[in-house]
Amino acid sequence: MNSNHMVHAVDHIGFAVNSLEEAIRFWTIGLGFTLERQSEMGGSFILQVTGTADPSVRTAIVKGPDGSRVELLEYSQGDRHGITPPTASAIGSAHLALRVQDIYAVLERIEQAGWKARGKPQAIPAGPRKGTLVVYVIGPDHITLELMQANE
Description:
By secondary structure, this protein is of the alpha+beta class. It has 2 domains: 3-80, Roll (2,3-Dihydroxybiphenyl 1,2-Dioxygenase, domain 1), CATH 3.10.180; 95-149, Roll (2,3-Dihydroxybiphenyl 1,2-Dioxygenase, domain 1), CATH 3.10.180.10. The chain is 18% helix and 32% strand. It is built from 3 helices and 9 strands. The strands form 2 sheets. Strands 5, 6, 7, 8 and 9 form a 5-stranded mixed sheet that branches. A 4-stranded mixed sheet has the order 1-4-3-2. β3 (56-63) and β4 form a beta hairpin. The longest helix is centred in the N-terminal third of the chain and has 11 residues, at 20-30. The radius of gyration is 17 Å and the shape is globular. It starts with 12 loop residues before the first strand and ends with a strand.
């Protein structure tokens, strides 16, 4: 198969948010990402690319310590389009897993930013990641993150 016909990398992960400013604060202050850039787009471009009839979208790209990028999107009519499923088991629900050094310190920091743990950190009981501590957290926009602390 021709390699030009295949995906060769993940460029970024995107999340629609209610408040771009609050989301930027969470990702930068709460998680230590850096703000790379912000922009605004509008008109038929949004409809043609996303299939969403919305007059404008403000965006920000935040970059993680490993170089991974998260795009935050605040649509001007976002509240009219619905919300992310409220539970991790809902069909269509997604999460982003983040590796951390101290899961309890990160939980304390992000809870101060308005995010809440769905449960308590648990060690994976078996398999290649046995002993890794994991917990899901959910934010104001119903975005779910998984925190993972390797068993070292």
